[in-house]
Write a structure and sequence with these properties.
With 105 residues, the protein is an alpha+beta fold. It has two domains: 29 residues; 72 residues. The protein has three helices and five strands. Strands 2-3-4-1-5 form a five-stranded mixed β-sheet, with helices on one face. The longest helix is centred in the N-terminal third of the chain and has 25 residues. The radius of gyration is 25 Å and the shape is rod-shaped. The model has no long low-confidence stretch (mean pLDDT 80).
């Protein structure tokens, strides 16, 4: 019985030390927000229609895209994040962006 109590006490001390180390490590973590995610797609307007009509997300730069003033349309996912739909087939003179995501620290 004595060995069992000693063993349990050692486990308890080890868990407390481990928990303290984890809390200390957590204080050094950075906060990050997702700014945007860009997708290469065949038909940006088809996706815009889905995201705005079915999922009720707010469109961004759709009129400018349809007028040829913007390279791609977007939808707003939340206050800090947008989804960009970059046409997979675009003229060589247009932007050279590919699929990517952008995180702010």
């Amino acid at each position: 019985m004595y060995a069992t109590l000693e063993y349990l006490s050692a486990i308890y001390r080890w868990q407390r030390r481990r928990s303290a180390r984890r809390q200390q490590q957590a204080t050094f973590a950075m906060e990050a927000t997702l700014d945007h995610v860009a997708f290469n797609v065949r038909d940006p307007m088809r996706l815009i229609n889905f995201y705005t009509e079915v999922l009720q997300l707010a469109p961004e730069k759709v009129a400018e895209y349809q007028e040829g003033k913007a390279y791609f349309p977007s939808v707003r996912l939340n206050a800090s994040t947008i989804l960009d739909f970059i046409p997979a087939f675009r003229p060589k003179s247009s932007c050279s962006l590919g699929a990517h995501l952008h995180v702010h620290y």
